[in-house]
Amino acid sequence: MNYEVVIGLEVHVQIKTRSKIFTRVAAGYGHEPNTLTDPVVLALPGTLPVMNKAALDAVIKAGLLLGCQIAPVCKWDRKNYFYPDSPKNYQISQYDQPLCLGGSVEIELPGPARNLMGEHKKIPLTRIHLEEDVGKLNHGATDSLVDYNRAGTPLMEIVSDPAMHSAEEAYAYLTSLRAAMVYGGISDCDMEKGQLRCDANISIRPVGQTTLGTKVELKNLNSISFVRDGIAHEIKRQLAVVERGGTLVQETRDYDGQTGTSQSLRSKEMAHDYRYFPDPDLMPVKVDEAWKTRLRAECPELPFDKQRRFVEQYQLPYTLTSVLVWDRTLADYFESAAKLSGKPQAVGNWIANDLLRELGSAKLELAQSKVSPAQIAALVKLVDSGAVLTNAAKEIFIEMFSSGDQPEAIAERKGLKAAPTDAGELEQWCRDAIAGNAKAVAEFKSGKDSAINALKGPVMKVGKGKANPKLVDETLRRLLAAP
Amino acid sequence: MSELYFQSIAEHAAGLAAKKYSAVDLTKAVIARTKAVEGRVQAFNSFDEADALAQAAESDARRAAGQARGALDGIPIGLKDVIAVTGQPLTASSKMLANFVSPYDGTVTVKLKQAGAVLWGRLNCDEFAMGSSTENSAFHPTGNPWDPTRVPGGSSGGSAAALAAGEATATLGSDTGGSIRQPAAFCGVVGLKPTYGLVSRYGLIAFASSLDQIGPFARTVEDAAIVLGAIAGHDPLDSTSFKADVPDYRAELGARQGPWRLGIPKEYFGAGLDPEIGAAVEKAIAFYRAQGCEIKEVSLPHTQYCLDTYYIIATAEASSNLARYDGIRYGHRAKNAKDVVDLYFQSRAEGFGAEVKRRIILGTYVLSSGYYDAYYLRAQKVRTLIRQDFLNAYRDVDALLTPTSPIPAFKIGEKTDPLALYLCDIYTIGVNLAGLPGISVPCGFTKSGLPIGMQLIGQPFNEAGLLAIAQAYEKAHEWSARHPNL
User: Fold this and answer.
1) pLDDT tens digit string along B360-382?
2) Is residue B279 part of a domain?
3) Residues 253-282 of A with CB under 8 A from B
4) What is the model's pTM?
5) C-beta separation of A260 from A233 below 8 A
6) CB contact (8 A) between residue A280 and residue B103
7) So what's the architecture of A423-481 in CATH?
8) B243 belongs to the catalytic site
9) For chain A, which residues make up each domain, given as ranges?
10) CATH number of domain containing B219
11) Which of A39, A200, B129, B384 is deepest in the core (most CB within 10 A)?
12) Rounded to an integer, what distance in angstroms lies between the CA atom of residue B479 and that of residue B451?
């Protein structure tokens, strides 16, 4: 029997706010344990939560970016369960009235070849809601210590429909979602710092069946490649169970990315009763049009939209756009250089090939680069005008990357400018080449265009590589066309 | 002129301003009185003499420098042991928090400090404010100053008893279902539960968040107005606090004159009402009528559902609010727990008393999957109807007049059935469910010498009007001039 895989993802994204969700104490990562705490974070007797508006802004913005409906009124609910990482022993979350409903994440599946665009799909979202993060337990041999620094960090839960059908789709979904969140300035989505966390609900069903199969929740998918590997592993496991004639049980499983295995954490029977009820300490929030309009104005163009525009507006090839659009800073950098130079493809190539290579080997971020978009544009102009040749330009770029000097100055200083500027001298070289290559001249005149290359060689040789090939080409053609 | 410790804030404000005595003199008088009677009253869980005297000395220094801060500067005010004061114990009269010291100030604490009040002592109450007699305190019962073999009411019994006994000049309590008004009635003092949202709850140990309000106990309506003026107002640390300007309640008292239209809810005068209390309240009604007030019988038809609604909502919220007492970060931690679940079970089993456990269990049940709609959701709907009853009545009347409690103070240990105790609150819980202001004002004594209180229920955020109506009665009677013989 053929089986179809059905996957839904629950992604938790930490929102990048200065303070925590319900109090003024700072949010952050990598601080001394229990230093980012106050009476509210520690749930001391008598303390109360107050909603951080920046966290609300971020969720609404995320919803607008992903095309969700923003609830006109939303409320906060308590999710009750006991665990030492949860200071109040309830988590403030949103149960039946999430801030965002619907929407979708656009994904691209791998194309038939690297330089060809793959299939695009929209993975529908169920909801996005706002909640608070919990602390962290550190287990010792005989005891456990709790660090509440993370507790109360604003956290967004983004739930997809069960609408993905392969580990690749899940991978593409997460990549695209992460890019949207980073683009929107909502989160840095660093999985190593726990800023993005993913649980997957996975089931299989016979092809053609419309009801969902028994779902397994896979937890601890703490890197993007673990998401792909973990899901692939779980699909294999489920198929093996079914093919053996076994029955799948609804359960939560823990994936170990190091060993590539998973084990059962708990079954459905042990599921919590969270006793959700509206939090009486927090007032419901009305989201009016003005609020949404203000945030809509802050929403950036998402990568796939940018990619389509780059292809159309700048006539860039797909491969180049896929290098440029995924990093918002890089895409902005490209656009600014492209506008200054008027030569988008050349600018794109310099950025995608040379700039990224140099940044990579120097282990630098784009923001740390000494090369400005204006300098890239200036370099492209130098090449385009024939003032420097491509090989010389490569050398200029490397010097520019390390010194930050203007390309023109580097070309002058290092004697890398194309010569001659004297048209008479170039014409003389061309005449000499024509005079000494009767065969090539005859072939060209009889219609073999490529024969002109045989004439260019001697000119370039005389010019010691500094002769502008474009000028050489023009001059030769002019002389050959003369009666 | 009565003893210093029985005088009102208004009297002290005049006495201190005229430099007849100092804040230190006053505080010393209150401390001495406390030491003299506390053996019989047991209103306090703890007090800090040196701290109180230091505050009083600061008040005197301010006054000497011409920087006195108003009527509360130098006045000894006791706080129910559910309100956080930096460096002072905060126990909620529970074994769970027996050794907890607050590292922060609640908002009312900050405001009282800013007003120059001398914060004096931690007052006993029912554990986590759950009860109507203060017998649920994990530490000791409190005696009613009028008869120490009887309860002072609850849950803010210590706050009412301390004031009645002269152990403080005013006190703060908290009222979730009557916990200020009922003990005020039992102890013969004024007790005000403000409109929900008027006084910040930040720093008040939560029992039922949507019902809890902090309010004053005072010797007179005027004193209650003074304290309310100091503690009311919007607080950015409490999302449920109301954004509005706070009037000068004391000044408003003089500005507001009757006659008023008073509603008498017929459901509040039925079976179970002690005849002596009924008679005293009828006399009060007659007084207002004689003053030219229009007296109208009104109906609050959903009154019969108040008790059930209250015990669903209050316990549901409490079950969640009290989850934080787990022995992990602070509070009682059981020894020798096997693992974390065992630590929870043992710490909570040992730390909480029977009534607290009963309410946590009830609240957990009503929120459980499959029961939520039938209990909690239904109760919230009924709550809306109950509030609507009051708002409907206010189309025709300015305030409602009822007994505060169906019975006067009973003997310690007399009522062992929890349901019988819950019935003590039948006239007060509707006010909390509707979020309204309510005040209990002394309106007489039983033949055996126990105080009787009447309750006036006002319109939302119209404390000024409510206080004026209460004061009109108070000024024409001398109940507050009587003091218990201890």
Assistant:
1) 999 999 999 889 999 999 999 99
2) no
3) 273, 275-277, 280-282
4) 0.91
5) yes
6) no
7) Orthogonal Bundle (1.10)
8) no
9) 3-293, 303-414, 423-481
10) 3.90.1300.10
11) B129
12) 9
